[in-house]
Specification:
7 helices; two-stranded antiparallel sheet; 173 residues; mainly alpha; two-stranded parallel ribbon
């Protein structure tokens, strides 16, 4: 159990921040994963094999059956992460998930939207881009839009800096 009101949690956060620990969160996301034939067509053969092996398409393995993803646990985890960031810690967005299939980029959008319930949209975008690049030692090469840096620019309809759900309205990459 994670109970963020306990003084031990404050002590843990202090130790993590003091030692420069970066936390990586993997909010659930994926509740509306696309299991269609078209969606599966983008999988590499080994991913398609893994998908078929765990039988996700029929709901045999999904986040619904994971006790760590109850609403209470998710809320406590988000509160912990929020307090960690407020104390000066670096939080990144996880690229993995506890379910298949993982269609590149789509699961990340779900994670970003979920985090926007707890953090400002621009902070979530920074966690997913610049902060991730810095943590990986790539901050001088990518993670920001600047001359000389590598970037994939995502053109969306809307204002994701105001409403992060607009990140799903991709028009061009």
């Amino acid at each position: 159990r994670l109970e963020v009101h306990l003084p031990e949690v404050d002590a843990l956060i202090a130790v993590l921040v003091e030692n420069g620990v970066t936390l990586v969160t993997t909010p659930s996301g994926g509740a509306k994963a696309d299991f269609s034939r078209r969606a599966r067509s983008v999988f590499a053969p080994h991913m398609l094999e893994a998908f078929n092996r765990v039988d996700v398409g029929r709901g045999v393995r999904s986040e619904i059956h994971n006790p760590l993803l109850t609403l209470r646990f998710k809320e406590e985890a988000r509160k912990f992460e929020q307090r960690f960031v407020e104390a000066g810690g670096r939080l990144l967005m996880g690229a993995n998930a506890m379910y298949l299939p993982i269609i590149p980029g789509v699961a990340n959008h779900d994670v970003m939207v979920e985090l926007a319930d707890w953090f400002e949209p621009l902070d979530v975008i920074r966690m997913a881009t610049g902060d991730a690049a810095i943590t990986l030692g790539l901050g001088n090469e990518t993670g920001r839009v600047a001359p000389g840096l590598h970037a994939d620019l995502l053109v969306v309809e809307g204002k994701p800096d105001v409403d992060l759900r607009d990140i799903r309205r991709v028009k061009q990459v």
